[in-house]
Design brief:
Elements lengths: L6 H9 L7 E4 L2 H10 L7 E4 L13 H14 L4 E5 L8 H11 L4 E5 L9 E5 H13 L16 E5 L20 H13 L1
Parallel strand pairs: 1-2, 4-6
Antiparallel strand pairs: 3-5, 4-5
């Protein structure tokens, strides 16, 4: 799988199989420029740049800001729901995503959960309107923890067991392997070849 491409490229190739619009959320316009040089932009519907207008301290980095920004933009474009994935999970499994989409019906969110009750909020499907409101409230109250997006939420969240359900579709649970740099991908592929 290692071919010198950025990790995000592998995700875009997999996600484009769905024929749904793909939006990339970037922290800055400089990051967008890097993406433009590194990815096949014909597969990208649009880039969205983090909206820091809601918080005072522009130096804060939190995945919640990216989620809020995505929800806000997609809401204005009249999208009802979104599959959110972190950019450092290159081994997307189409069967897992299809399964989650089926589980999402009549819920406000669908996300994987481990046996230890740790959830994967950056590998989840969200109904946009209620989570936009919740993200906005949290950021306005200076609550930047992503886990707090789900706390006390009066929304119906469908949790899908990673060990008991998703593992049937992704036996090595590669969908949840988090790699931060291209070198991590090389090391991972090297380890896989040894096994």
């Amino acid at each position: 799988m290692h071919d010198g491409k950025p990790l995000i490229t592998h995700q875009i190739e997999k996600l484009s199989e769905f024929k749904y619009p793909i939006f990339l959320v970037a922290n800055t316009s400089e990051q967008v420029q890097n993406y433009i040089h590194d990815v096949d932009i014909s597969k990208i519907t649009a880039f969205i740049i983090d909206d820091y207008g809601i918080i005072e301290n522009k130096n804060i980095r939190s995945p919640l800001i990216g989620l809020y920004t995505a929800f806000k933009e997609l809401y204005h474009l009249n999208y009802q729901f979104a599959f959110i994935i972190s950019c450092d999970n290159p081994f997307l499994n189409i069967d897992v995503i299809n399964f989650m989409m089926k589980q999402f019906a009549f819920n406000d969110a669908c996300m994987p959960i481990w046996d230890n009750n740790y959830v994967e909020p950056l590998f989840a499907i969200y109904k946009i309107a209620p989570f936009l409101k919740r993200a906005q409230e949290n950021l306005s109250n200076k609550c930047f923890k992503l886990s707090k997006l789900l706390d006390q939420a009066k929304m119906k969240i469908k949790y899908v067991s990673i060990e008991n359900e998703i593992k049937l579709l992704d036996d090595k649970l590669e969908s949840f392997i988090n790699l931060n740099e291209e070198a991590d991908l090389s090391n991972f592929n090297h380890i896989k070849r040894i096994k």
